[in-house]
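Supplementary Note 2. Why include the ligand at all?

Several targets in our set were suspected to adopt different conformations when bound, so apo predictions alone were not considered sufficient. For every target with a known small-molecule partner we therefore ran a joint prediction. The input for S-adenosylmethionine is given below.
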Amino acid sequence: MNRRPDVRRPQPQRRGPGPGQRAPEVPGLAARRVAVRLVDGVLSRTRPLDAALEVDHDPSGFRALDERDRALARAIAGATLRRFGTLRTLIAARLDKGLPKKGGPLEAILATGAAQALFMQIPAHTAVDLAVAAARADPDARHFAGLVNAVLRAVVTEGAPESEPGADLPPWLQARWIRAYGPETTAAIAAAVAVEPGLDLSVKADAARWAETLGGSVLPTGGVRIPGGGRVTALEGYSEGAWWVQDAAAALPVRLFGDLAGRSAIDLCAAPGGKTAQLAAAGAEVIAVDRSAERLQRLNENLSRLGLTATPRVGDAATIALEPADVVLLDAPCTATGTIRRHPDVAWMKRESDIAALARVQAGLLDAAARLVRPGGLLVYCTCSLEPEEGERQIQALIARANGGVRIEPVLPAELPGLEAAIDDDGCVRTLPSHLPADDPRLSGMDGFFAARLRVG
Ligand SMILES: C[S@@+](CC[C@H](N)C(=O)[O-])C[C@H]1O[C@@H](n2cnc3c(N)ncnc32)[C@H](O)[C@@H]1O
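The joint prediction is reproduced in token form.
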């Protein structure tokens, strides 16, 4: 009996293969099933997208795919998560009784199917048929293959809705940003995170030459921006270690130290080493601390490709004992809500309660970092979060706790040409995804970051 589903005209009533039987693989199905697992890992808050793509033990099956299918699975998962707010609403409107409880990855199957048809250039019948096939291949979702077919046919017939600012953000996050930045700026942030961004590089030297070689432009932050797509490792200059991937906003905190030649530096929470590379390239003697030995190994590999050196130390930044240094950088663990543009999974992995828990960790790390600065030295604190609790309020609280021992060294407009709007009234840096606008939305924007420069002692 031929069990291969008719990919042009699905028959939802047909049952999948019985126990012990294997259906021949439908073309394109493997990539869809992996995309479903990637999205389901995020929606169930068990696996961030990048972790699923990188870890050796890969429960999604991503690494078993060939290169083309990997790119397709990644693109489907990315497009789904970027537009997930809209997709969830469209799907919910077609489900009178909500999502069945025992459907396994049913929501991920529906969302990836709809994303392909509505937001990627994939023919609707292919997207729907492969979603039905993915449901049939899943032990829990197979009972709902008919529902997948019905819901997706209705969704694709209706077509993509007008995009509304904020429709793709979790409501709790949108509400917080409106409180922190106002409705207009929040709409601008939402528009910026809706577009998959290009690639930002920090270069060791000669930004103009690398911009020309790679078909990009030099940013006011000193880095190079190129259109995204393609394998980073295949780009010119990668193997010779001429540059590393680093968002334009992530490159700002180290610049706040000024001249670093010959100075001692401690980089706390350093892996995978984007900022360590900047410190080392600027001539500092760097100790790079991270609590994860595995991630420090990646830092070592990255530095070695770049021909740069730092002393790695595995340890907890809150308690590590080190000789005080001229400058200390604390790039604290945070909710990373400023990076949703590049990591759309972050919006759906995080919970609002994560903010308070991380803010407590950040306060402890800040106190420890301040103790590692030699008297009169500089501390730069940064997070890639848009939440004031993880940025501005950390600094206000530290200054109050330090009783005159720590003060903000305000960043001057001349230090950030082209980004003066990112300097707040206290002289700290607050970048937003809507900063650095350009005509082409894919070449616009930057991560949301907070950075404060502090004089200690
Ligand atoms: C935001 S990432 C750092 C990115 C890095 N600074 C860069 O520019 O490439 C946060 C890092 O902090 C590390 N980390 C989290 N808590 C830590 C702690 N208490 N002590 C040391 N490292 C920590 C994590 O292992 C992770 O590598």
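The pocket of S-adenosylmethionine is lined by residues 269-275, 289-292, 295, 316-318, 331, 333 (CB under 6 Å). Confidence is low (pLDDT under 50) at residues 1-16. Comparable summaries for the other entries are listed in the accompanying table.
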